[in-house]
């Protein structure tokens, strides 16, 4: 079994642009995200396992993620994990790789794929909520699909927000940081953002959706629990709403489940899933466009297989 442990290795084997393309190729070839197995949560020790199996084409794989809420107090990551890739015919183990490195690559790649089909071609200003690896990954990913030249980083921690803004500036972007207690949307000109990436652990909306412009495209990726959300009812109700898979969104996406539960929208408000979007089957209505992601196992499999094939050849 070969080992591909670090994010730098994965980025070298599967650059962001390639990750976006292989995800699109899988959907264009007919993969149906509605058939992907659901994520399983299993209590274990002082936390839980999240098990994410998938099979498609020549490969099968599983991501095993551990969530330990007490780890940050120990100076350890709250979430850790490993990905195992197998031959789909013989189920022979082929590769192991760092689960968080894989997630850090595939999640922004999925968002960028959605943005490629949702956002106006001229979208150039990006507002990022969050200061961690996903926030930076989304900056890189959005640059691959739209001419992003301005970034505003919004976070609770001053030093982290400024550090990410400086990193963006070093990458040649006009960048600034906004820091404050929720709702931090009051601190930034939401109506001027072409793209918004929500990459936080917040359980409550990050900004007033009514303040966003009609041409904005929002990718919300931070939560996968039915009682947690990053965007509010106002934004969801106004938007063309696309999800990875209806089945996953209706069970895990609080950004969708909460407005449904409250009667703000009905299930018919979902304009389509990611496969529909790639195939051109989503009708884009007037107003904002929203892509809600919870993270699915097929995405890990597609990118992990691309990394393995690049390494093997």
CATH top level class name of the largest domain: Alpha Beta
The count of strands amounts to 14
Structural class: alpha/beta
Strand order of the largest sheet: 9-8-7-10-11-14-12-13
Biggest sheet details: 8 strands, parallel
Q: Point out poorly predicted stretches.
A: 1-5
CATH homolog superfamily of the largest domain: NAD(P)-binding Rossmann-like Domain
* Number of helical segments with 4 or more residues: 10
Percent of residues in β-strands: 25-35%
Radius of gyration, in angstroms, nearest whole number: 18 Å
Q: State the shape.
A: globular
Proper CATH architecture of the largest domain: 3-Layer(aba) Sandwich
Query: What is the string of helix and strand elements?
Result: EHHEEEEEHEHEHEEEHEHHEHEH
Helix content: 25-40%
Q: In terms of topology, how is this protein built?
A:
Blueprint: E1 2-4, H1 7-13, H2 16-28, E2 40-44, E3 47-56, E4 59-67, E5 79-87, E6 93-98, H3 99-118, E7 125-129, H4 133-145, E8 150-155, H5 158-170, E9 174-179, E10 195-198, E11 217-220, H6 233-238, E12 240-243, H7 246-252, H8 254-262, E13 270-273, H9 274-278, E14 289-292, H10 297-312
Parallel strand pairs: 1-6, 7-8, 7-10, 8-9, 10-11, 11-14, 12-13, 12-14
Antiparallel strand pairs: 2-3, 3-4, 4-5, 5-6
Helix pairs in contact: 1-3, 2-3, 2-10, 3-4, 3-10
Organism: Nonomuraea mangrovi
InterPro entries: NAD(P)-bd_dom_sf, ODC_Mu_crystall, ODC_N
Protein name: Ornithine cyclodeaminase family protein
Primary descriptors:
8-stranded parallel beta sheet; ornithine cyclodeaminase, domain 1; alpha/beta; 6-stranded mixed beta sheet; single chain; Rossmann fold; 313 residues
């Amino acid at each position: 079994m070969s080992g591909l442990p670090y994010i730098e290795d994965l980025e070298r084997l599967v650059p962001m642009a390639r990750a976006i393309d292989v995800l699109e190729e899988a959907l264009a070839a007919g993969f149906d995200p509605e058939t992907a197995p659901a994520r399983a949560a299993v209590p274990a020790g002082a936390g839980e396992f999240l098990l994410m199996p998938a099979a498609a084409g020549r490969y099968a794989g599983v991501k095993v993620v551990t969530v330990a809420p007490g780890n940050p107090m120990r100076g350890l990551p709250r979430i850790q994990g490993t990905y195992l890739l197998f031959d789909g015919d013989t189920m022979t183990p082929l590769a192991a790789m760092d689960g968080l490195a894989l997630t850090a690559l595939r999640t922004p790649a999925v968002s960028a794929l959605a943005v490629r089909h949702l956002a106006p071609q001229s979208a150039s200003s990006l507002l990022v909520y969050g200061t961690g690896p996903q926030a930076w990954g989304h900056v890189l990913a959005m640059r691959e699909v739209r001419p992003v030249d301005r970034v505003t980083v919004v976070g609770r921690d001053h030093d982290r927000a400024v550090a990410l803004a400086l990193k963006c500036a070093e990458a040649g972007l006009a960048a600034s940081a906004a820091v404050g207690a929720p709702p931090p949307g009051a601190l930034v000109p939401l109506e001027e953002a072409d793209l918004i990436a929500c990459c936080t652990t917040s359980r409550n909306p990050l900004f007033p959706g009514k303040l966003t412009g009609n041409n904005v495209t929002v990718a919300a990726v931070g939560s996968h629990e039915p009682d947690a959300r990053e965007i509010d009812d106002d934004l969801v109700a106004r938007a063309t709403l696309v999800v990875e898979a209806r089945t996953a969104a209706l069970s895990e996406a609080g950004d969708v489940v909460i407005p449904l539960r409250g009667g703000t929208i009905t299930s018919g408000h979902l304009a389509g899933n990611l496969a529909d979007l790639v195939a051109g089957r989503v009708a884009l209505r007037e107003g904002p466009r929203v892509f809600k992601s919870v993270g699915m196992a097929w995405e890990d499999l597609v990118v992990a297989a691309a990394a393995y094939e690049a390494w093997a050849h």
